[in-house]
Amino acid sequence: MSTLIKQDILVELLANAGTGFEQVRVAGKEAFQAQGFPTNKSEEYKFTAITKKIEQRIQNFQLAGAFEVTAEQVKSNVFEGFEGDVLVFTNGHFQQALSSTVEGVEISPLSEKASTALGSIAKPEKDPFCALNQSSFDGGVFISVPKKAQIQKPILFLNFFKANAGQVIQPRVWIEAGDFAEVTFINHSVNLSDTSYFVNKVVEVKGGVNTQIRYYKLQNEGENAIEVSNIETDIQKDGRFTSVNISLSGEMVRNNLSINILGSNSEGNMYGLYLLDGKSHVDNHTNVDHTVPHSESNELYKGILAGSSRGVFNGKIFVRQDAQKTNAFQQNNNILLSEDAVVNTKPQLEIWADDVKCSHGCTTGQLDEEALFYLQARGIGKEQARGLLLYAVAGEVIEHITDESFRDYCIAQVQERLGSNF
Amino acid sequence: MSKDNQILEELTSKEYEHGWSVNYEADEAPVGLTEETIRWISAKKEEPQWLLDWRLKAFKTWEGMAEPKWANVHYPKIDLQALKYYSAPKQTNKPKSLDEVDPELLDIYKRLGINLNEQKKLQGIAVDAVLDSVSVATTFKGTLSKLGIVFCSFSEAVKEHPELVKKYLGSVVPMTDNYYAALNSAVFSDGSFCFIPKGVRCPMELSTYFRINAANTGQFERTLIVAEDESYVSYLEGCTAPQRDENQLHAAVVEIYAGAHAEVKYSTVQNWFPGDKEGKGGIYNFVTKRGICAGDFSKISWTQVETGSAVTWKYPSCILKGDNSIGEFYSVAVTNNYQQADTGTKMIHIGKNTKSRIVSKGISAGKSQNSYRGQVQVMKRATNARNFSQCDSLLMGDRCGAHTFPYIDINNPTAKVEHEATTSKIGEDQLFYCNQRGIATEDAVALIVNGYAKEVLNQLPMEFAVEAQKLLALTLEGSVG
């Protein structure tokens, strides 16, 4: 990609980025300049020409800035029956007035927490977009769950996106959980924009000893959303991190999910579903790094692709030399429903320890004709039978969501999709 | 655990048995690579103008290319200007039969256990032996030519069958394909050529034996196999090299063309010098192998047993162009000490109802790194394509690595593609089970490793399977728990 853009975008973004974190931003800028925008030759972005997409769709490389939303808008976008707390963000800026306070959890705008070690978990050298965010993020939130706090109700991040002054949105989230804490987050975004926008988000999650953290994410922002999201977490001894990522639409979406296992007897779980049609393009890159003995990771990503959509999956499992007795499992299944749908998948294992059990499986195909026949033979119509079988595929991922109202919402969304377009 | 260490010790201390070299007078190209070198090689081989032009074009392409960096292997930069690009045993006259071949050369092959002697028909293998850069001898030529089969050295083919060579050379692996293929196209010295005419089933296994003898030379051979419609051939390839402290480069190109209903089976037992146990010396094996199933119902099957080379970079591939064509890849890659292997395959499904099967078994020991890198690509018009891939890794010792990089790119909804991979060591429970039944740990490991590799070894022709099994046993002698 032309170096011109690389220069321009940084200058423009830095011009109106938030203040504070000067050193962090300089490190981010340097890391970005060293990497530049990925080209189609970059191995990590081989199938996702995000730079080209940004070039085509984004004209105004300025940060979009905060805007007003009403309490009504907030209320209407919360899932039916949701009992947890809601944190409202507009273009990545925390709206304290509209948000609920969560008992026992410290939540404040990132700008008030200047000593936060941003970039210490999601390292800017690893990904150019992570570096770009670190150089020029805007707004952001700091969340600290104290030691032994058991937050039973989930915390919902309700993000409103609207491209107005500029088309680039760079949210930043820092979550830290003390030892023995337990907490669940749900990330849901609402698109209020008429034009294309580019969201470049970084979430860092710092776990303590024996923390249980769940992070659920639903992406359904429609045809004009271009999004790169970097979620990275460090897990300590006895800790557990579970991610469920459901992507239903987006012009081009790239999810980088990294789990660094730093303590033994810990567990990382990653579940993902991409149910796409039209021209949607969703790319999931996951990375689990087992660095210590006795840890486990489970991964299950499922794709259903229709229209001329494209699904990309790259799952990396690293088992370092010290990480003996690691169990790592990875599975990726894809169903292609139309002529023009494309799947690129690369399950990757890199193993340096010998006493491990690692496996991955990957399949791509169609619905099982025999299963379809079985249902038809019992008087279920073909369309309905197809919907039922496809729902069964999606359900295997959705069932990992523990919060009932969010799970029901996801089920409804998936069923609506399967009913109308498939 | 101490038992393991002891066995590991034994394993790592095993020396390379083909490590000797012979001093014979050789005809060598001057050191370095320029256009002059290429003209020199071409003149030496009395090549026609078109081939020289082709080489020069490849050289021009190569000059504009950069060395690939994506493979999961690490080695010091190779100084291509410090190599000699041609080395041939000096011969005054071209030998008409084996009796006239320099006895010293024949002795080399005898020490390798390669039988160039036509008397031993029992073995029934036609051998083309390539030493350093040139083909030394080809056996059973007469028998084969009665059937219309051409099996000879590449330079001979250029002289006697220029129309065939011209038609197929570079048709499967174009000179622009990659850095080492371009280099090979520019400087290739010799190799084997094999042509099976329509409807002929080759009655015996064809075999090429490669050996690098001279120091500081690169070996760049080229193999071209053409199987016309409804023909069948099984082809074997073996390689060894003397033990030297410096690294040597081997950059070969193999091209296979299969017409309608034709079947080609290509088996390799690669045992280049892997370097000593400190990781010093050894062959850099950067090879491009590709076959095209051009006709409908054709089949290409690659089987490889990789035990040698310091660094391997090799992806035997199939382009499944004809409808209902089949591609197969069976591989056992064993790495020990400081060896690094990045090997796998590419299956490109273009035709309808094409099928491919990949079975890759990696065994890493010592401080070696073993990677599987494969691609299964289903093109848009390849309806009902089917692929099954299995790549398993066995780790022996805690300082080695096993890596898997499978790329699966599907552009057609009717494709059925499955991939599975596992990585583990030999289970304590498996060993215990064997021990319980009176099988000593060492034998049990041998049994398990053998069983693990069996699926691939079974694909080898009889004569080779024996050698491969011996090699496996040798590389992992005493074997590990």
UniProtKB/TrEMBL annotation, chain A:
Sequence ranges assigned to domain SUF system FeS cluster assembly SufBD N-terminal in this UniProt record: 20-155
Residue ranges occupied by any SUF system FeS cluster assembly SufBD core domain in the UniProt entry: 163-392
InterPro entries tied to this protein: Fe-S_cluster_assembly_SufBD, SUF_FeS_clus_asmbl_SufBD_core, SUF_FeS_clus_asmbl_SufBD_sf, SUF_FeS_clus_asmbl_SufD, SufBD_N
Similarity comment text for this entry: Belongs to the iron-sulfur cluster assembly SufBD family.
Protein name as annotated: Iron-regulated ABC transporter permease protein SufD
From TrEMBL, chain B:
SUF system FeS cluster assembly SufBD N-terminal domain segment(s): 146-202
UniProt domain SUF system FeS cluster assembly SufBD core: residue ranges: 210-451
Range of residues in the leader sequence: none
SUPFAM superfamilies found in the cross-reference section: Stabilizer of iron transporter SufD (SSF101960)
Superkingdom, taxonomy of origin: Bacteria
Pfam family, one: SUFBD_core
NCBIfam families associated with the record: PRK11814.1, sufB
Family affiliation: Belongs to the iron-sulfur cluster assembly SufBD family.
Protein known as: Iron-regulated ABC transporter membrane component SufB
Native source organism of the sequence: Algoriphagus winogradskyi
